[in-house]
Design goal:
Protein name: Ribosomal protein S27
Keywords: Signal
Mean pLDDT: 85
Structural class: alpha+beta
Strand content: 35-45%
Largest sheet: 3 strands, antiparallel
Strand order of the largest sheet: 2-1-3
Number of domains: 1
Low-confidence stretches: none
Distance between the termini: 7 Å
Signal peptide: 1-17
Number of helices: 1
């Protein structure tokens, strides 16, 4: 069964949201695997809520990637 990998990308404001990826991000935080997309998105938001000062002047984008076990 495929799992979902939760990834938070921290990007510069000069990078368009659709162009924010692992390659263009200033910081990439891998949160771990989740069983479905919903906990993946919630985990990304919860992580950012705990550390808003770390992204000051930048923005965060949560990405849920499919992975195989």
């Amino acid at each position: 069964m495929p799992l979902i990998l939760a990834v938070v990308l921290i990007c510069a404001p000069s990078v368009a949201a659709q162009d924010c990826s692992r390659d263009t991000a200033l910081d990439v935080r891998v949160l771990g695997t989740m069983p479905t997309p919903f906990p993946c998105l919630m985990g990304g938001m919860a992580t950012l809520a705990r550390s808003p000062d770390e992204i000051e002047g930048r923005y965060a984008k949560t990405v849920c990637e499919r992975r195989k076990r």
